[in-house]
Design brief:
It contains two helices and 20 strands. With 313 residues, it is mainly β.
Length: 313
């Protein structure tokens, strides 16, 4: 082959390599990754609860719904990581919180039209649930704000120490989807995070012992069963709280993703209170179980590790 022919063949080869590399780069870039103080948990008195009832929005009890939840979790951004979703935005109106000082925390949720949302579905006996955790997950507060009018919510909030906290508004607007929107709350001052408690199957609070059975498995629905005992005797007469015999919140460490956990229907018994949960990834999670007995709501906290198949710690 003469010199011009060899140069032409070489240039053509370079063109093929460039086009192949361009196609591979486009394929790799097609999928964007999802976007991703301290006070011990405590009990708080609550008024008498209404009898347990079926909550179609949250209390999924059949395996088909639970499996759908697991599949959705694997393909969507976990709840609580975004301040805006599906046209709805959490808008805090209180901007200053001081350590140890009670404040009337005010916020709105705006809808796709930009106006404050004023009509909500009732979920777990409430129109809106407001959860606050310290970023080191050593503190947990489950609160129920009151409507102040014109779409404004208000709640008395005391954050005990300086640091960063994550607030979640868990709600469903009328005609809209179930949503959990999250925002950071900053309390000025010197802050030293505490280490995450080691995984443990037993938690103790106010003389009660709560035991956890079951494991979180990434991408798969798992059953978590909690049994409550006092003085060595199982408590079989838990009282309804928020439409069920227990309310469970699960938070992923690191980014503080909020897991939707669904209680199973049925009476509380010595066999325990059962929830269906799905972890979006491996790693450590903090579980907060609210249960009611003797007219008082108490919170038991657990650290659990979700093990990815084929890996071990």
């Amino acid at each position: 082959m003469n010199t011009p022919a060899r140069l032409g063949a070489y240039a053509a080869g370079l063109g093929v390599i460039f086009l192949a590399a361009l196609g591979a780069g486009t394929a790799l870039g097609a999928g964007e990754p999802p976007r991703a103080e301290p006070r011990p948990v405590h009990g708080h008195p609550e008024p008498a609860a209404a009898p347990a009832h079926t909550d179609a929005g949250h209390a999924h009890t059949d395996a088909g719904h639970a499996q759908t939840d697991a599949e959705d979790a694997a393909t969507t951004v976990p709840a609580g990581l975004q301040i805006s979703q599906d046209g709805y935005t959490l808008v805090p109106r209180t901007t200053t919180l001081l350590p140890g000082k009670a404040a009337d925390f005010r916020f709105t949720v705006t809808g796709p039209d930009g106006a404050p949302v004023t009509r909500y579905q009732v979920k777990h006996d409430k129109k809106l649930h407001f959860i606050v955790v310290s970023r080191d997950l050593g503190g947990f507060w489950h609160l129920h704000p009151e409507e102040a009018g014109d779409g404004v919510w208000t709640v008395r909030l005391t954050l005990p120490a300086a640091g960063t906290y994550r607030a979640y508004a868990d709600f469903a607007p009328e005609g809209g989807p179930d949503l959990t929107l999250g925002a950071d709350l900053n309390v000025p001052g010197a802050y030293e995070p505490r280490p995450l408690p080691a995984p443990d199957r037993t938690a103790r609070v106010d003389g009660y012992t709560v035991t956890l059975a079951g494991d979180l498995t990434p991408g798969r629905v798992s059953k978590l069963v909690f049994t409550v005992s006092k003085d060595g005797t199982p408590v079989g007469d838990l009282e309804p709280y928020l439409g069920a015999y227990g309310h469970l919140v699960a938070i992923r460490t690191g980014d503080l993703a909020y897991l939707h956990v669904h209680p199973e229907e049925g009476a509380a018994a010595a066999a325990g209170v059962t929830f269906a949960a799905s972890a979006p990834s491996g790693g450590d999670y903090r579980l907060f179980l609210d249960f009611k007995h003797g007219g008082t709501v108490r919170t038991a906290a657990f650290t659990v590790h979700a093990e990815t198949a084929g890996h071990s710690r």
